[in-house]
Amino acid sequence: MLNSPAINKLGKYPQDERYLTIGISSVTRPSGEVYLIETVKGLFGNFQEEEMKDIHLVIFLADFEEAKKTTLLSRLSYEFRKYVDQGFLHVIFAPQNYYPPLTNMKIKFGDSQRRIFWRSKLVVDFSFIMCYCRYLSKYYLHLEDDVIPTPSLYPKLRDFIASQKKPWPMLDASYMGHVAKVYRNVDLENIATFFFLLYDEMPVDWLIVRWRQIKYHDSFILPPASLFQHIGNSSSFVENKFSYKSKEKYFDPYDIKYRGLNPPATIYTSMKAEEGTKSEHAYTKGIGFFRASGVKKDDYVTITFTPAVRVRQVFVDTGALEANDDRLKSGVLQASYLISDESPEKWTEFETVGDFELGKVKVLLNSDRKVTCLKIVVSATQDKWLFLREIDVWRA
Q1: For the segment 212-252, what is each residue's pLDDT rounded down to a tens digit?
Q2: Which of 134, 257, 283, 304 makes a 20 to 30 Å CA pair with 116?
Q3: DSSP 8-class letter at 364
Q4: Long-range contact set of residues 213-218: C-beta below 8 Å, sequence gap at least 24
């Protein structure tokens, strides 16, 4: 059935298993706005050619009205044909008989019949695309159709997956609702069946939480910052208005600019980290970011080099694009230097080499001296969180 031309509208059903499948279920907005094209362009513009060999992108056009589906299908074919020909992009329809009854459903939560129809169909849409994608890869990333990705998405996502030290039911690649969730493909058939059986019971984001609790009794597993930003201003359901315009507060809009340049170091902090983040995340490549609460005067982060290194420049950035209040309001950067090569255990006292301004500090150091340790010191108690985005060190 999945090989049927009635389902596969652009591209054939994939025969090769890859590392990741990205699935997007899309319907036309009542307002006429189309976010899907921008979302797809954002993904294609993000991936390197070699990365695409590890990924399938499956778009499910889920409107019931044929005219709406065929219009968007033609546009996707025109703009992204080369990705179809490369076996990267697949566009699918669902047969009408896949859907259970979507009328005269029981009223729950005070929802109108229109809302019950909309949310129930959305659950079945999720079920169908998960069934289609279940054998295509090792991992499955389910996206909404109105998002943009962080730069260097693929290495950040792989690092996020690889960083998990215990079994997980799903990973939350964004902080909002069901904007972006990562699943293991071996679980997709069970999840799809769960959704299909309970399609008219509750909204899909509630079902996602219930499935996680029933299956694993686990909590959310979040990256230090969201890997996707929500860009849509209108919902596929006309009654959803103001709440739909929410944006990710901790979106990662930055590329991995200085990958591999930071010399090896041991990172330590006196601050209490938010679950899922560590101080070394702001220093090492990949997912980046460290977030702490209850930050007090004289709290610190140290970066200790063994052996000591000659440093030309240091840059530290705090705060996030839409969380500017979480920058370091008052702080200094200090350095301790090696006294002599013959006595690597002997360091100078810490010297202040720069002051934070608007959450940032950038300093040039005397490269004639070897740095043993850098220290970020909080000068005044924070009334907000501290979001340590990036620590960059350039060798001389």
Answers
A1: 888 776 677 877 678 898 887 656 544 555 445 577 777 76
A2: 134
A3: E
A4: 215/169, 215/187, 215/190, 216/167, 216/168, 216/169, 218/168, 218/169
Going by the DSSP 8-state scheme, the letter that residue 108 receives in this structure is -
Q: Are 316 and 361 in contact (CB under 8 A)?
A: yes
> What single DSSP character describes residue 35?
-
Mean confidence (pLDDT) of the chain: 86
Domains, the chain, in order of start with CATH, read 8-245 (3.90.550.10), 266-395 (2.60.120.260)
Residue 257, both tokens:
């600019």
Residue 242: what pLDDT? 46
Rounded-to-integer distance, Cα 103 and Cα 162, Å? 44
Cross-strand partners of 10: 91
Cα separation, 57 vs 140, whole angstroms: 10
CA dihedral 260, 265, 271, 272 (to 10 degrees): 70
Dist CA 192 CA 172 (whole Å):
18
Is the pTM higher than 0.70? yes
- Render pLDDT for 85-105 as a digit per residue (tens, 0 to 9): 999 999 999 998 999 988 877
Q: What is the pLDDT of residues 291-349, one digit of tens each?
A: 888 899 999 999 999 889 999 999 998 886 556 778 899 999 999 998 877 666 778 88
How far apart, in whole angstroms, are the C-alpha atoms of residue 308 and residue 365? 14
* 335: nearest Cα among 379, 300, 360: 300
Looking only at the bridges linking them, the beta strands covering 18-26 and 137-143 are parallel
Token code pair at residue 285: 């490549």
